[in-house]
Specification:
mainly beta; Immunoglobulin-like; single chain; 2 helices; 301 residues; 3 domains
């Protein structure tokens, strides 16, 4: 019994001096009962809005406020409202208000994000081949003026535009503060504009659409004094977009005595190679997984 009385007395002295993060440890329920009726904070506060906490009783007490990015302490008079300025409640999350006098009383309340004032918008990838399904994705996150994520559902409009053509327009409701989309790339090489908008807020990104794999490869060739010179016709993808310079085209020459290959990059839309072959030769062409026609060339006269 003496130990209980001594512990209670020690804890009672600590209640008015200890920091808020240790009150729950130093002031167990046997001494510091949380009498919410004596300390009445609002159930919810919008970030950056001035509010107050009502108290009952009389005399002086020490007030503590602990929040996600706030920790304050000052003397107050019981029975009067405790004013919380906007700067003390800017971060969204759970706050704990504590008053310590003869005993400690505590109560919790929540601060919610204010209205959206900014959009963070990410789009992937920055470069995409044309005509690919689910090739472009994006995610948008609304934040208030204090950089709190707005977790209340809002509708974000996503739009994809290539030149004057609208490829997609899709409203998406956010979940837990996140709105996202996935869409196919267009059919023409060039800039793909991706936009996200929420009320008066908007964010824009640009994705570069490039030609897809070569399609319908065609080659021609002729003999020279040094062998064979072969080249492709202008290389396009299946949608008619010119394949970028630097794309590798492989020429394969098959003779009676063996086979040889030459890799040539596309330059100004055409790939060209010289092959040392004197007998009857069959030449084939490929780029990636795409095969072209075969060219048969007779032996050198």
């Amino acid at each position: 019994m003496l130990w209980l009385i001594s512990s209670a007395w020690a804890n009672r002295r600590l209640c008015g001096k200890i920091s808020p993060c240790l009150i729950a440890i130093a002031c167990p329920a046997v001494v510091c009962l949380a009498q919410v009726e004596g300390l009445r904070p609002p159930a919810s506060v919008v970030a950056g809005t001035e509010t107050s906490i009502s108290t009952t009783g009389s005399g002086k007490a020490t007030f503590y406020l602990a929040g996600p990015s706030t920790s304050t302490k000052h003397e107050v008079s019981l029975g009067e409202d405790i004013r919380l300025p906007p700067a003390d409640v800017q971060s969204a999350g759970r706050y704990v208000a504590v008053i310590c006098s003869q005993t400690c009383q505590s109560a919790a309340f929540y601060v919610t994000a204010a209205k959206p004032s900014a959009l963070s918008f990410l789009v992937h990838p920055s470069r995409v081949p044309v005509g690919h399904s689910d090739a472009v994705s994006g995610v948008a996150l609304p934040f208030d003026q204090f950089r709190n994520l707005v977790v209340e559902p809002v509708t974000i409009d996503f739009q994809l535009t290539a030149g004057a053509a609208a490829l997609m327009s899709r409203p998406m409701r956010t979940r837990d503060g996140v709105g996202w989309f996935r869409a196919s790339s267009g059919k023409s090489a060039g800039a793909l504009e991706v936009a996200a908008s929420l009320n008066h807020l908007s964010a824009h990104r640009v994705v570069r659409q490039v030609a897809s794999d070569p399609c319908n490869l065609r080659i021609k060739g002729q003999r020279t004094a040094k062998g064979l010179v072969v080249e492709t016709e202008p290389v396009h993808d299946c949608a008619g977009n010119p394949v970028p310079d630097g794309t590798i085209v492989t020429f394969t020459a098959t003779e009676a005595n063996g086979r040889s290959t030459v890799d040539a990059p596309i330059k100004q839309g055409i790939a060209r190679a010289q092959i040392a072959a004197s007998g009857p030769t069959v030449i084939s062409v490929a780029s990636g997984v795409v095969m072209g026609n075969e060219l048969r060339v007779e032996a050198q006269p």
